[in-house]
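Task: sequence in, structure out. Protein: Flavoprotein.
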Amino acid sequence: MKKVLYLIVCAAPPASQTHELIAPLQEAGWDVCVIATPQATRWINIPALEQLTGHIVRTDYKLPGEAGPLPKANAILAMPVTFNTVNKWALGIGDTLAASLLCECMGRGTPPIVAVPCLKMDLVKHPAFRKNIALLQEYGVTVLHEPERYKSPLMVPLSEVLQALHVAYQTEENKEAS
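Result:
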């Protein structure tokens, strides 16, 4: 049985390359489900992502009583995650499905979450962002963010993302086994 990965996509330039992430994630053993912020839908090709993943791309809440359209996640990758979503998530503001899922999972403590922020350097230097990144890390989120190392668009190489996902998932599996 494949591990299920929720890929949270926010409205930043790398979102337009989301389709290129699917095959490497699948090759790493993940059944990928894409959840996009409403603004990210302008950057992604929803039909192509649905065809690649075999799942609907979720952008909105389901109605009460409706069955969840996606399998339960074993891990979450928020990539790219924006200044807006990072700050809302750290403060517990769930005004989009993507932010709500991040808040719920962080509150529950499972599944493991890896976040890869993508934002302008002026926003990286904003005191709220620095504070909220530290808060997310304190709560157990793996944040791959080194602005001095990864210049615009501040994205981490995919090999490092895959490694972080593997480590986060294995750490969670080891906790559950003990």
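The CA atoms of residues 11 and 40 lie 4 Å apart.
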